[in-house]
Amino acid sequence: MFSEYDQKTKNYSGKRGILYTEIMLPSHAPPEYANRETLWNSVEAVEKQWNAQLARRFVLALPKEVPPEQYPQMVRDYCEKQFVSKGMIADFAIHDPAPPGHNVHCHVMLTLRAMDETGKWLPKSRKVYDLDENGERIRLPSGNWKSHKEDTVDWNDQKYAEIWRQGWADTVNRYLEAAGRSERLDLRSYERQGLDVIPTVHMGPAVVQMERRGIQTNIGNLNRDIKAANQMLSAIRKTIRSLLDWVGELIQAEKELLKEEAASTDLGVLLNDYLNQRKAERSDWSWFGQQKGDLKDLKDVARAVVYLQQHKISTLEQLNTVLSGVKQKASQAHTGMRKAEKRMKDIAGIQNAVAVCREQKPVHDKYLKIGWKKRQAAFAESHQEELKAYNKAYRYLKKQHVDLNVNLDALEAEHGKLQSDHADFARQLEQVQAELKPLNEIHYWVSQVLGPEKVEIGNPPEKKFSVLKQIKDSQKESAKTDERHQQEQDVER
């Protein structure tokens, strides 16, 4: 394409992986703007400031769960609703870089000026005079009237960042549903979704390339640790929630039972009942099978009994207290991990930003030394990517309250200390998982005593009784067993 601005031809014929391109015009736009060269030459011609912003550009990640042939229509639907219907021109290109299907995405460029009904570009802003309490214009000491600028359109309002993101999520989810997929896109942060999940760190193309070549990086290692921690935390939370719900249900059932009978749910008694129940179920087995089964059950239950004795647990209330303590341990370890991961993320970001600034500093310094605006603008045009990378990295350093003179050795030492702390917290979570194992076994065995559901294939499921009835039945059965044993002893005497 030929650029009238600098009288040069821009050659993009070597661009790989272009699947589809399209320019979408509002109804009042000149038809010739459907040609990319004509459109952007017109945009450049109307801008008079050397540093004027020509377009808004962003990238849409396309889901691989949607059939690729639907990508153009999906992007078209989104751009029409969010941009073209408001008066913007949308120029988009769908890319599928190597390897195919790995990172399909769409680049979207939007015009920033509105058009009148004849297709003429309108000003971005207009001059508005300030008025006093009487509605009169205010004169300044210089003799000029006090005024300010107002945008002619609100497309630059920050509220649209949220609106456009949500619009893309809605569009993708509609196509996912039509494709019969269960996945859904949610562009809110984990915190806004109410999920207690640690987010991973954006790696960027340079780090991704290093990781693909087998070179481990601080950010890559951090993300691997975060993913492992999230999996462990998810399993721990699920187990604790299940156990607490189960114990709470049993405690409530026990309270109801105590109103009717002077009885108590002793965990040791229930585990013993489980052994008796399992032994009765094997009454028609061979002698060897019965002995082998009894020995295995005895070993399993013995572990649970030892755990209960070591932790001085005999009642459901005491078990509930222990579970709450385990939950608190997991929460404390999780909080420590999050703090360490956040700081490690900041350190990795600072290290990357310093590297980028130092790499692009010669270009930035040369740009600042150019005294003539036109020469400076031409230099900026030919070094857009370098200057953009430098400014982005420099802004990040300012946000972190550091500069290019930051002590990288001290940061690396701090990062190492944080990694050690993070490993300690991970070991604490592993200990929590180990503590939950015998509690899970107790849950299983006690549930078996209180009446597990036995459903045979092809038969309708039996009626599920309440925990209260299960406890009653278990205690009645235990009382009958004790009575039979007493009668047998009386007969022997």
Structure report:
This protein is α+β, with helices and mostly antiparallel strands and 493 residues long. The protein has a domain at 2-123 and 158-178: BirA Bifunctional Protein, domain 2. The protein contains 13 helices and 8 strands. It has helices at 36-46, 71-82, 159-178, 190-193, 204-212, 218-260, 267-281, 287-310, 316-369, 373-382, 384-399, 408-449, 467-492; strands spanning 2-3, 8-9, 18-24, 55-61, 90-95, 105-111, 125-129, 147-151. The strands form 3 sheets. The chain has a 4-stranded antiparallel β-sheet with strand order 3-5-6-4, with helices on one face. Strands 1-2 form a two-stranded antiparallel ribbon. Helix 6 runs antiparallel to helix 9. The termini are far apart. Residues 257-264 and 451-468 have low confidence and may be disordered.
Sum this structure up briefly.
By secondary structure, the protein is of the alpha+beta class. The protein has 13 helices and eight strands. Helix 9 packs antiparallel against helix 12.
Reading the helices and strands in chain order gives: EEEHEHEEEEHHHHHHHHHHH
Number of strands: 8
Strand content: 5-15%
- State mean pLDDT (0 to 100 scale): 81
The helicity comes to 55-70%
Shape assignment: elongated
CATH architecture term of the domain at 2-123 and 158-178? 2-Layer Sandwich
- Total DSSP helices: 13
From the helix content, strand content and strand pairing, which structural class follows? alpha+beta
